[in-house]
Amino acid sequence: MALYRNFEEFNIEVTDEIKSQFSSIITNLGEDVAREGIVKTPERAAKAMQFLTSGYDIDAAEILKGAMFKEDYNDMVVVKNIELYSLCEHHMLPFFGKAHIAYIPNGHIVGLSKLPRVVDVFARRLQVQERLTHDILECINDTLKPKGVAVVIEASHMCMMMRGVQKQNSTTTTSGFRGQFEAQETRNEFLKLISSDLA
Ligand SMILES: Nc1nc2c(ncn2[C@@H]2O[C@H](COP(=O)(O)OP(=O)(O)OP(=O)(O)O)[C@@H](O)[C@H]2O)c(=O)[nH]1
Ligand SMILES: [Zn+2]
Asked: Which principal EC class is assigned to this enzyme (predicted)?
């Protein structure tokens, strides 16, 4: 399985198939697919959807394994405000927001950029916010084997904003805690850090 994908290189046959499906969808929605502004839209949409679901092809554990360093640091590491964009599996509409991740090393630290990369791998799939939270949490827990790991995601769902209940201001928060973060004191320290103005 690829570590990183060159997102510009999509399988031509799959792109053509999705392109013709988008062509039908656009026609069925009442548009003229031959219109100048739209004529290339089926291909653009095919590529966009493949990019937004490109996380299926990437092994998130391998990303972490590629940048684990032996280090005797036993305190909390927090990476907060990681932007994320995903697609809800029910409507295939975006949900987006921020992920906050913390872990307590157990002999190894991980390259900081790898945590947002893991978020992207699991976000670029058809998801529900709860599973996305757990996918990230379990991947870090199983691969890095830290003393503890915590993940909080705050997100807005377009399927609740643009359609359906049409609530513009509601946000959803999901969280998962393993190891030392299951203890109230450690969990509270993390929650305090992510809600503070500290960089
Ligand atoms: N738990 C959870 N639900 C989600 C997520 N994304 C979308 N949903 C919900 O999935 C549900 C699908 O419900 P259905 O009744 O089958 O679909 P629907 O008729 O389009 O529902 P409405 O959105 O209420 O109009 C909705 O309540 C959505 O709000 C998510 O990440 N987690
Ligand atoms: Zn939805």
From this structure: hydrolase
* Ligand 1 center–CA 90 separation, angstroms: 6
Ligand in closest contact with the CA of 127: 1
Which residues lie below 8 Å from residue 198, measured CB to CB, with a gap of 6+? Answer: none
What is the total count of domains within the chain? 2
Q: Is 20 in the same domain as 73? A: no
Question: Residue 19 belongs to what domain range?
Answer: 12-54
Q: How much is the pTM?
A: 0.93
Shared domain check, 173 and 99: yes
Residue 164 Cβ inside 6 Å of ligand 1? The answer reads yes
* CA atoms in the 13 A half-sphere facing the CB of 37: 1
For β-strands 126-127 and 77-88, DSSP reports them as parallel
Between the CA of 57 and the centroid of ligand 2 the distance, in Å, is 23
Q: What's the confidence (pLDDT) of residue 8?
A: 58
Predicted confidence (pLDDT) at residue 7 exceeds the cutoff of 60: no
Return the pLDDT at 20: 98
Q: Near ion ligand 2, which residues have CB within 5 Å?
A: 88, 90-91, 159
Cα–Cα distance, 136 to 187 (Å, whole number): 17
Tell me, what's the ipTM? 0.91
What's the pLDDT at 150?
98
